[in-house]
């Protein structure tokens, strides 16, 4: 009886080991089924919300910002005061210019006295004619210096604001810049007391304020150079912002930059795109970070397979058809692909709906 039990245990052990070996020898596959469905291919652009119309306010007069009349977020009307500029001439320079004017006036008076004396002596034959001519030339030079001093003083005396210092009026020249359009103040780039470079033919000048119409906004962003060839004006764009999770704003591409640029952030060449955005509820605000998913192609009711099931040899695409689900046997088959959304891909040839393909091996768990 004991011998029979030992024999039975040995048989069971052999059967158990054999089953484990068979199970271990079978490959564990991830499988995917070819199904019909809709496919949408998109290109992603990252950027921000910008005003459709924005202008930069600069000053034609250089100097120091004396006073601001507006803050960021203020709504202003065309002609409304924005800021005031004090010209380059400081109070010290004004004192110097005024003193130079006084000195020039004294020099002219002295030159006139010298000429008068020289004329009297020359008439009495007590002074050579050459001395008279020298005094006349000295008077002319003094008058020229006086004219220059008067012109410089008049230049900084366009508006007189301030107190009397001694027997002189300290002049503070003021230039007031007004809003050229009606709109919202987006940014105020400087603070009171900051220096401003004037707008000239050789220089664009300092940007003091940016403003525009905040009711008409657009998306401006960058796309990779690998995707720019898929874009064209009129394509739909679904715009999302961090402030409204799960909500999209409808847009449409209207501009694609013909010139790429190198992006330090992306470490590659990117192209700028612009899209109009519907903002009927005025929910979007200027400067919000935004992402636009641009629909470049759509297919309805087409065969679709998981991209994990597709592999390539050269320029050809293949899948492994599961021929025996019990043993895990597969065979390679060449297929042709359509569009992809990055997770699934359209199959245009080589596969039928309902076929099972391998999507890779199941990773072993420890």
Beta percentage is 35-45%
At the first level of CATH, the class of the largest domain is: Mainly Beta
Q: What Rg, in angstroms, do the CA atoms define?
A: 42 Å
Mean pLDDT across residues: 81
* String of helices and strands: HEEEEEEHHEEEEEEEHEEEEEEEEEE
Q: What is the percent of helical residues?
A: 10-25%
Structural class by SSE content? alpha+beta
The CATH topology label of the largest domain is Elongation Factor Tu (Ef-tu), domain 3
The assigned CATH architecture of the largest domain is Beta Barrel
- Contiguous low-pLDDT stretches (5 residues minimum) are 2-25, 159-166
Mass-distribution shape = rod-shaped
The overall strand count is: 23
Can you walk through the features of this model?
The protein is an alpha+beta fold. Helices cover 24% and strands 41% of the residues. Helix 2 runs antiparallel to helix 3. The protein is rod-shaped.
Short description:
This protein has 366 residues and is an alpha+beta fold. Helix content is 24%, strand content 41%. It has a six-stranded antiparallel β-barrel.
Q: Which terms summarize this structure?
A:
366 residues; alpha+beta; conserved putative lor/sdh protein from methanococcus maripaludis s2 fold; Elongation Factor Tu (Ef-tu), domain 3; OB fold (Dihydrolipoamide Acetyltransferase, E2P); 4-stranded antiparallel β-sheet; 4 helices; 23 strands; 41% strand
Fold topology:
Layout: H1 2-25, E1 29-33, E2 35-51, E3 54-57, E4 63-68, E5 75-76, E6 81-87, H2 91-123, H3 129-155, E7 164-165, E8 168-169, E9 175-178, E10 183-188, E11 195-196, E12 209-212, E13 217-224, H4 225-228, E14 236-241, E15 249-256, E16 261-263, E17 268-277, E18 289-306, E19 311-313, E20 316-324, E21 329-340, E22 344-349, E23 356-361
Helix pairs in contact: 2-3
């Amino acid at each position: 009886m004991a011998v029979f039990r030992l024999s039975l245990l040995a048989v069971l052990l052999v059967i158990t080991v054999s089953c484990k070996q068979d199970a271990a020898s079978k490959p564990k596959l991830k499988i995917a089924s070819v199904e019909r469905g809709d496919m949408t291919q998109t290109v992603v652009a990252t950027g921000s919300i910008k005003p459709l119309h924005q202008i930069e306010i600069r000053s034609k007069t250089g100097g120091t910002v004396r006073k601001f009349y507006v803050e960021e977020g203020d709504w202003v009307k065309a002609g409304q005061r924005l800021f005031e500029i004090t010209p380059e001439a400081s109070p010290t320079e004004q004192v110097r210019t005024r003193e130079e004017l006084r000195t020039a006036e004294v020099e002219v008076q002295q030159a006139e006295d010298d000429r008068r004396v020289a004329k009297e002596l020359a008439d009495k034959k007590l002074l050579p004619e050459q001395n008279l001519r020298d005094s006349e030339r000295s008077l002319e030079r003094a008058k020229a210096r006086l004219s220059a001093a008067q012109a410089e003083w008049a230049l900084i005396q366009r508006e007189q604001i301030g107190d009397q210092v001694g027997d002189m009026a300290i002049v503070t020249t003021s230039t007031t810049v007004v809003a050229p359009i009606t709109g919202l103040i987006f940014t105020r780039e400087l603070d009171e007391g900051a220096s401003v470079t004037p707008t000239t033919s050789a220089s664009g000048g300092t940007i003091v304020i940016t403003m525009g119409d905040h009711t008409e906004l657009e998306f401006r962003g960058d796309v990779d150079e690998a995707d720019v060839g898929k874009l064209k004006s009129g394509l739909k764009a679904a715009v999302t912002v961090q402030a409204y999770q799960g909500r999209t704003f409808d847009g449409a591409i209207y501009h694609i930059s013909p010139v790429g640029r190198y992006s330090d952030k992306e470490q590659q060449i990117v192209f700028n795109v612009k899209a109009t955005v519907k903002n009927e509820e005025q929910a979007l605000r200027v400067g919000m970070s935004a992402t636009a998913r641009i629909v470049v192609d759509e297919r309805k009711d087409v065969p679709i397979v998981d991209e994990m099931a597709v592999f390539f040899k050269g320029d050809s695409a293949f899948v492994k058809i599961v021929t025996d689900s019990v043993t895990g046997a597969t065979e390679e088959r060449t297929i042709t692909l359509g569009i992809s959304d990055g997770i699934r891909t359209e199959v245009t040839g080589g596969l039928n709906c309902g076929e099972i393909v391998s999507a890779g091996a199941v990773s072993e768990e420890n």
